[in-house]
Each structure stands twice: as structure tokens, then as C-alpha cells.
Model the fold of this input.
Amino acid sequence: MTTPQDPLTLPCGTVLPNRLLKGAMSEGLGTSDGAPRPELGALYGRWAESGIGLLITGNVMIDAYALGEPGNVVLENDRHLAEFHDWAVRGQRSHTQVWMQLNHPGKQAPRGLNRETVAPSAVPFEGSFGRAFDPPRELTVAEIHDLTWRFATAAGLAKRAGFGGVQIHAAHGYLHSQFLSPKHNIRTDDYGGSPENRRRFLLETFAAVRAAVGPRFPVSVKLNSSDFVRGGLSEEESLDVVQALGAAGCDLIEISGGTYEKPMMMIGQGERGGFFAAFSQQARNISGAPIGVTGGFRDLSTIREALQSGAADMVGLGRPLVLDPDFAGRVLRGEPVSSEVGPIQTGVKALDQSSSFETLWHEDALRRIARGQQVNPDENMVLALLRIAGRTGLKALMEKRRA
Ligand SMILES: Cc1cc2nc3c(=O)[nH]c(=O)nc-3n(C[C@H](O)[C@H](O)[C@H](O)COP(=O)(O)O)c2cc1C
Done:
């Protein structure tokens, strides 16, 4: 029977010291030219003190012209390798590993942030929601190949900088997730039109990343169980992707779900346990790769249950580690912990429904931890809103990413 304290040997041979991982949470701690700020080392060092097995970084962009939000860290050449090295070293105290999440937003980037918006197909987001995003241009096949190469280049650089592994972000509606979605990918060439073609970009990216880092270096993928929108990636098709990634030699598939259109990764469906534990169990039954599941884990018994029942090989934690950077340490010590994560409500309907303030509040809290300050989940949210709006500007706040 698996417990949170058990080590996990990955297909590449790497051994993770236990079954807890920190899911990626974008920190917005990049400089104006995309270098990691020194606070990132402090933040990851703080989490490493808890003894957690794996820290997955917030998404790092593979192209400076394709940001997901202001303040993104970017890795496309060796210009800032010393700063990346500092981040990796300070986060990898004792046996904790730090893996870098690599991402391209596709069309899910706030309007005006990038000089151009690209996607698998020229399909804009619908209705009032679409007003926050520029309509995209369809990528050419040559550009798809170039993006594959960019993911691989960034992965090779992450390895050189001292990170313990990499994760390709194929969840939450960003570029890879757009390719997997029949709603957003209506191409008729080799990259669309059938489930096999829709997952070609992801599998080619995986193969290119693997070639860049070699067989002994962990390569993970974060994948949606489903997009939870009509015409999006279905559970059935997602399971086929799980199988294909396992056959390709993926070291860890981290299950999540939802996109900006339906931010299920942040809210789930009111489950008692983790948001995606039932799907994760199905994935694990057919997968050749270890499975992690992230979203909604709040207490010791639910975490234990997911591991004991075989729903997952690893449990991922996000917001509980923001409210308490030692949450994982307490789970590992067997303390009967229960996280206070609750909806962060401002009273401003547009913000509360989109869960964008929820993300912003936690991102702000990450910066506080990095500076050694206290995080107070009971603070007055109107004052928090004013504080954060003062820093980001109200317009940016309304257009903020969901996760
Ligand atoms: C502030 C914040 C930023 C996030 N950024 C990312 C990200 O960069 N990449 C990603 O895959 N998920 C991101 N997420 C989603 C988390 O990884 C996780 O899936 C989600 O918070 C659900 O887990 P939880 O219920 O334990 O918080 C973010 C979540 C938060 C709160």
C-alpha cells in the first residue's frame, strides 16, 4: 500500500524521495527581459525545506514573443543561465527536485500582450469572453516544427542550468492543449482532423525534448482529463493521449482539467476528494507512465486515500502550499493537516466568476513568501484587491490569467 513517504522510481531511473509534488504556479517573478528574479530561489528554497519530493516551477515561456502574462520567465538561449542555475540550486536542497514547466500560450494570452497571436487554427474565443484575447492566426507547418525545436532547446537549457527535469504544459487551454482540442484545432493537415493528428504536435514535442535531454532525464507532461467544454478534449481522447505518452517513455503524466473558458483546475466539481481523482484512476489503469493528480487536495486523509487506492502515483498540491509553505512537510510527518483554501471572493462579479482574482491573490502571496513575509488568507479582500490593482493596474487585473 503506497504512502506519501514512499519513494518513486521513474522510468528514466530517477528516484523521487516521496509522493508529493508542488503543481506549477506562475510566480510572475521574471525581469523585463525574462530572467528569473532572485526571489525565485528564496521561494523554492522555502518549499524545499518542507522535504517535498518534487517542485514544478510556474510556467516558463519558450518564446519571448509569446508570453502568457506580464512578468513571465522566458528561456530561449543561455543569456540568463546563471540566474536559472541559482533558482535550481536553491530549490534543490537535500533530495527535493525542481523541474521546469515549459509553455507557449497560443491564443490564450491577454489582448495586446504579444505582437501577434498564433494557434492551431484561426478560431477566436467566443462571445464576451473573446474580448479579452486577440483573434489568432493559424500556425504554418514550418512554424509548428520551429516551436517543437524551441521546446527542445528550452529543455536542454533547463538541464544545463541544473534543473532536475522538465514538464511540457499540455493542459489548461494553452497551445498544446489547443492542438488537442477538436473545438480549437480544425486543421486538415497532419496536425488536425483526427485524434492521432491532434496529438502529433505533443508527441513530436515530447520526442524532441527527450532527444535534447537524453534517456536518463525526467520528462513530464501536464494533461487535461477533459476540457469540460462542448467540443473540447474529451476524457476518452485524453486517455488515448495518456497511453501514447506512456508508450513514448513519459516519466510522469500530471492530470488536471479545464481551460480559461471553464477553469475546472481551480474549482473542480464539488468532489470530496481531489478534483480529478476518478479520471486519474482510469488513466493509471491503462498508463505505462506514473500518474500524478493535482487539484483540490486539502487534507491528509484525502491525500493518503488517493495513493492507497491506486488513483495516482503522486499527489499534486497548489494553493495549500501558498497558504502554508510547510503543508507538505506536515503531511509527510503524518500530522492531521487540513488546508483552509477557500474561494477568494471580492464581491466584483466578473472577477469572482472567472476565478482570475483567486489566481492573482495566490500569485501575490507567492511573492510575499519569497520576501519572507506572512500570508494572511483572512485579509480584507477589498483591500487586497486595491493593493494588487495598484501594482498590476485594473485593466491587467480584469484580463488576468485563470491558472
Ligand atoms: C497562482 C497560480 C498560478 C498557477 N499557474 C500555473 C501554471 O503556470 N501552470 C500550470 O500548469 N498550472 C498553474 N496553476 C494551476 C495549479 O498547478 C493547480 O493545477 C491548481 O492550483 C489546482 O491545485 P490546488 O487545488 O491544489 O490549488 C496555477 C494556480 C495558481 C493558484
Q: What stands out?
A: Residues 23-26, 58-59, 101, 169, 171-172, 222, 256, 265-266, 294-297, 317-320, 359, 362-363, 403 surround flavin mononucleotide (CB under 6 Å).
